[in-house]
Amino acid sequence: MSPKIHHTLMRLPSYLFAFLLVVGSCTSCSTHGERVLTSATGTIYDCLVVMPSTALTQEQLRGLNQSMIYNNGSAYDEPVANLYDLVRVTMEAVIPGMPQAETYFSLTQIPPSAFDDMLKPTRNILYVDINSDRYTQVSNHLLCNQWSTPQAVCVISAPSSDDFIDYWTTSGSMIRDWFVRQEMERQCSFYRGYVNADARQTVLSVFGCDVLVPEEYRLILDTLLPAEQGGCDQSVRLVWCCNNLGSLRRDLMLYSYDYVDSTTFTLSYLTRRRDEVVGRVVQGEQEGTYMETEYDVIPPQMRVISMADNRYISEIRGLWRMHGCPMGGPYVSHTTLDELNQRVVTAEVFVYAPGQKKRNPLRQAEAVLYSVRLPSEVNLLREVQASR
To answer: Going by C-beta distance under 8 Å and a sequence separation of 6 or more, which residues neighbour residue 31?
Structure first.
């Protein structure tokens, strides 16, 4: 039997569904009355998939997008043969901008008949219910803290395998992104209780922005980089924090400069600006070594994220390396426009973890980027608090 439903999103146009996913991630997570929930089980970026492994027919296979099936950005490198394989291609796709192949999620699959009370507290659950007697159309239900906390549950109901295939091939990546956002928000909730207040205040005083600087991070640089002939064409304000752990180092950097025009928010401009900034600031121990962006092996990728407050962010994922030194790792940056001050603000995290998997450390650091609040948001919050 499928879970009890509390929040429903019916079949919608893709652009509206993407918007509701963002809103749903911020509004649907709540406990049910005074009910006490057990702690969620499982580790971060694990997901339990509850669905049948129904074999696909030859007609269904012919109708699928072959580029989706055969290892286009997916760690699953065998042809799709059943419904679960279709889900696995999306949920276990390779995260872009990583030095080695690491997937969005680590999956465990069980049939609906095996979904018992012992498994219900799992932190991330994707439940697919296909039943022609119960459903006449596809619907998607996003639930938080249903059987445990923190927990994210997505229930997809469909009358047939064909309907589910049609739905998943168009909306599966958005479902995956919703689960990612839930993990990000959990990490931000943790940071709210463990913040470096001094570093947070420095960012607030320098940029007028608020950000949840984790308690383990230390402020290592607060500076103004002047414009240089042949280098940066305008001055850059920068704050740099780091946890200073050599074996698993996480860095947070915020920098800001004057907004000129819309050509600022392009991949080529933002990566060039990044190289100018980090090349001047992040120097190696050996003379002549400095940080730069890796363009040849795995070029950086950019996408636009729409936030719930109608703000747009240019996200770039890629690799950094030390020029003249065999060091490197992944980075993620968020760039947006501070309309109040007409300034471009970039918040970036990068990770150095030699010989280790980097997905979870990078995702934990990346969550900090989602905590950034621009001056207009900070001022509005102050006004609301003052009016109470």
So the answer is: 37, 145, 149
